[in-house]
Amino acid sequence: MKRTAGFYGRLLFVLLVCAFMLVPVLMSLLAGLTRNYFQGVVASGLTLGWLLQVWAAYADTVWLSLRLAVACAVGVVMIGVPAAYALVRMNNRFSRAFEELMVLPVAMPGLASALALLLTYGQYGAFRGSWLFILVGHVIFTLPFLVRPVMAVMQRQHLPVLEEAAASLGAGPLQRFFTVVVPNSRAGILAGVLMVVTLSLGEFNLTWMLHTPMTKTLPVGLADSYASARLEVASAYTVIFLLLIVPLLIALQAINHHLARGDRP
Amino acid sequence: MTALGQPNLALARRRWRLPAPATFALVPALAVLTAFWILPLLQLIALGTQHRDGPSSAYWQVLSSAQYLGSLAQTCTLAVVVTAAALLIGAVVGCFLARQRFWGRSALVALLTFPLAFPGVVVGFLVILLGGRQGLAASVGLSVFGQRWVFAYSLIGLFIGYLYFSIPRVILTVMAACETLDRSLEEAARSLGARPWRVVLDVIVPGLAPALVSCGAICFATAMGAFGTAFTLGTQLNVTPVAIYNTFTNYANFAMAAALSVVLGAITWAALLLARRLIRQTGATL
Fold first, then answer.
1. B149 and chain A: CB distance < 8 Å anywhere?
2. Are A247 and A162 in contact (CB under 8 A)?
3. Where are the transmembrane segments (chain A) (predicted)?
């Protein structure tokens, strides 16, 4: 195909937008590895010292975030997959109202949701102080991100037909759910779980209100370091966060690509 | 008669047999949402009707105070401007990436969509790296023009931050929508002698309109509620999420914070509803 001037003009624009997305990330990477950012890389040299210092100071926030993300994914799968199945099967006014209700926490500003949780359950000290309080917020916020792809896959797999076949062979509701419904929607579940883990790892708007000094997650620690630590430390901390989240995003893109082609894994 | 009656009976029985367990499957999610979303939300709405200082409810105080109204107006304006800019940039980039095939395209797509999952705090820090006191713009400005360009801690910084996490969303949506466009319409327009920009305005933009409207609504909602970016860039910015945070933590005025949250949520929700109605209308006319 012959490339016109218009093609190169637009390519240049796309590359500029890409630079806008990429340059700050690379700067953060560089700053996290530079011995003294204000003197510059050339003058002061590279070091892994900041990364080690951040790890020593903030490792517990990383572990808490990972624990939260895994617990959130498990919880959301446990309530979300049955819910997606119910919504696909029911498909009536009630199920559509439920879908609206489920998406509302995503539309509402996270700060407002957190405030609502805090004002309702904040007086239960043990619950307020534990990481389960943050978990509840994350589950509410990430639920639609699992239910949506699972519903999409369920609708595409002609689930009612398969299920009817199983029912005609004598399978009960529970047996049908675990041997027909769940295996056939595993691509959607996988995509949803990856999304939920990614969102939970990065959630800040809710978490900042729900956390206590004993339950600091990675993004909360990041906000702390941005407010008080020197630029190299903040950058190194950001690099650790990116190292966690970028592999997840790559996996997410791969699975979504897969789903878009309509293949079964 | 029996031939007609029997399938109906079978249908009725099936309707009874299958949906009942399916409805039970909704119970855990419904329980969790009721306990941790509906009840807290009702509590929040109810709390906003209380009053601490002054005779009127907190809602009325929000709606009659120039300070809070100004903050809401500023937040809305910023969200609208960010949405418009992100739609424009994202549509051009998304169309280009969906239509053209060239070396390195999929890598570009991957790089452009990563920031979608960056939390607001991280985006705020990236803006500081770009436009902060020691940022890229400051050093470039210093070496070329002899003065530091610092814009991170103002509304411009906030705008750039919001743009940063809105563009990837628009690109993804536009790329998906571009795949479904009927290219023969464009060829027909071109063969009838339409100039390239007329094809864009009369064929491509209307075709993308539903996707652009729904994505724009989500961008608007995200920009309205984004707290992390503003928090990182500095809490003296007068946007509503920061105002809510300050009212809650610094002044412990729970009723006012609740009322502000409800008003902010209502505006966001109204925007999403409006977008959905618009899409339904265009869907009917197309």
1. no
2. no
3. 12-33, 40-58, 64-88, 100-124, 130-147, 187-210, 234-255
Place of tokens 């800019």: B85
Q: Cβ separation of B89 and A17 shorter than 8 Å? A: yes
Domain residue ranges of chain B, discontinuous segments joined by +: 63-285
Distance from CA of B258 to the nearest CA of A (A): 7
Residue B1 has pLDDT above 50, yes or no: no
Burial group, residue B190, by CB count within 10 angstroms (0-12, 13-18, 19+): middle
**Which tokens sit at A105?**
């926490």
Strands (E) in chain A, as ranges, are none
b/e per residue A219-239 (b: at least 16 CB within 10 A): bbbbbbbbeebebbbbbbbbb
Span between the terminal Cα atoms of chain A, in Å: 34
The CATH architecture assigned to B63-285 reads Orthogonal Bundle (1.10)
Tens-digit pLDDT profile for residues B172-217: 899 888 888 888 888 888 888 888 888 888 888 888 888 899 899 9
Residues of A whose CB is below 8 A from B225: 108-112, 205
Kindly determine whether residue A109 and residue B227, on different chains, have CB atoms separated by under 8 Å.
Answer: yes
ipTM for the predicted complex comes to: 0.86
Count the helices and strands in chain A (H runs, E runs).
14, 0
Are residues B121 and A102, on separate chains, in Cβ contact within 8 Å?
no
Per-residue pLDDT tens over the stretch B107-166: 888 888 888 888 889 999 999 999 888 788 888 888 888 777 888 888 899 999 999 989
AA letter at B235 = T
**Cβ neighbours of A90 in B, within 8 Å:** 19, 22-23, 26
CB-nearest partner of B44 from A13, A112, A137: A112
> How many residue pairs from chains A and B have C-beta atoms closer than 8 A?
236
Taking each helix axis as running N to C, give the angle between helix A110-121 and helix B205-225, from 0 to 180 degrees, rounded to the nearest 10. Answer: 40
Is pTM, for the whole model, over 0.80?
Answer: yes
B270 touches chain A (CB under 8 A): no
Distance CA(B167)–CA(B89), nearest Å, equals: 7
Separation between Cα atoms, residue B148 and residue B123, nearest integer Å? 21
Q: Are the beta carbons of B134 and A38 closer than 8 angstroms?
A: yes
Is the distance from CB of A25 to CB of B123 less than 8 angstroms?
A: no
What single DSSP character describes residue B37? I
Q: Is A188 helix (H, G, I), strand (E, B) or coil?
A: helix
